[in-house]
Amino acid sequence: MNIIGAITPTTKMNMDEVEKFLENKLNLQLATIDEKGDPNIQPIWFDYDKERQKLLVVTPRNSKKIQNLKKRNVIYFSIDDETFPYKGIKGKGNVEVIGDSNKTMPLIKKIVIKYLNTLEHPIATMILESAKEGNHVLVEISPRFFSTWDFNKL
User: Fold this and answer.
1) How far apart are alpha carbons 93 and 57 in whole angstroms?
2) pLDDT of res. 83
3) Where does the Pyridoxamine 5'-phosphate oxidase N-terminal domain lie (predicted)?
4) What φ, ψ does residue 27 adopt, rounded to 5°?
């Protein structure tokens, strides 16, 4: 994976730091382009599959994000910690939308557990039931690069 220093070369994270940062419970800001050519940015839960170097998100099948991705499967994303000293990762990637609940359920459960620490929470129940019915899908992002910053390194 190509890692770029977003601010200065000295604030750039290495791959181990990137992987550790992506374990955080921060929202991924997902940017798509709508039918008018305007940006659409949504905060969303995510998980990082470090073996395959993929970012994974779950969203309703009929969401604006999915409608936009059907027209153009390229996105921008940003994940940042707003607590000083600031750090974050942004990038550009191609996506694949996966709707087969047999393939997606284990990954969706992993995302839900990351953010809620349980599958018993009402939000978890709602997402999992919707995914079983085919109404939530998994979006697999293949980043082209990571542009990183870590103000701890200044």
Assistant:
1) 13
2) 93
3) 16-144
4) -80, 145
Domains in the chain, number: 1
Q: CA of 27: how far to CAs of 8, 15, 55, 56, 108, in Å?
A: 24, 20, 12, 12, 15
- pLDDT of 7 over the 90 cut: no
9 contact partners, CB below 8 Å, separation of at least 6: none
130: helix, coil or strand?
helix
Q: Is the peptide bond before 143 cis (omega within 30 degrees of 0)?
A: no
- Taking only the tens place, the pLDDT of each residue in 19-57 is 999 999 999 999 999 999 999 999 999 999 999 999 999
What backbone phi and psi angles, to 5 degrees, belong to 98? Answer: -115, 120
d(CA 95, CA 128): 22
Provide the residue range defining the domain that includes 91: 3-153
| 145: CATH | 2.30.110.10
